[in-house]
Amino acid sequence: MDTKHCTVDGWVDAPPTPGPHGTATFDLVVRPAAPDAIAKDAPDTIVSCTSEVARITEELLTGVQPSDLVHVTGTLVQSAAPGEPVRLTGDALEVLDTAVVPILRDMVMDRCGDYCVVFNADTAVPVFTALGQWVGLAETPTPSPPSSTSTSV
Predict the structure, then answer these.
(1) How far apart are the two ends of the chain, measured CA to CA in Å?
(2) Which CB contacts under 8 angstroms, 24+ apart, belong to 62-66?
């Protein structure tokens, strides 16, 4: 396995979870610095992260929520098995930007490319760009292709 000390910026994909022996784990959604260099339908990269540093673990479990943009520095380990996500053991964490809408326990947050949607079963779906600009309400959490007669997102 190859290891490398590096820094990764990405969006927290789901609420960080406590792990064994005082650790916390979370997944980062990482997009390339030059998105025009890849195909528009290329999937985002998921980096599986963990940390055993007490102050980072506390911040992850009490202050970080899905769609927060974070800057993680640590040791990156490429998996030997094809298709397995790379793993990053963080020894430094900085929250670069917080999610626009706080995620409540009974709500679901999803990222569709450059858009973030927050929804539950009883309401329309509020949609924001990844930079926090309000887009509007959608009837379903599933993105629909743009059309000249449709107002859904």
Answers:
(1) 43
(2) 63/95, 64/12, 64/16, 64/26, 64/95, 65/12, 65/15, 65/98, 65/99, 65/102, 65/103, 66/11, 66/12, 66/13, 66/14, 66/15, 66/99, 66/103, 66/109
| pLDDT digit string, tens, across residues 6-30 | 999 999 988 899 988 889 999 998 8
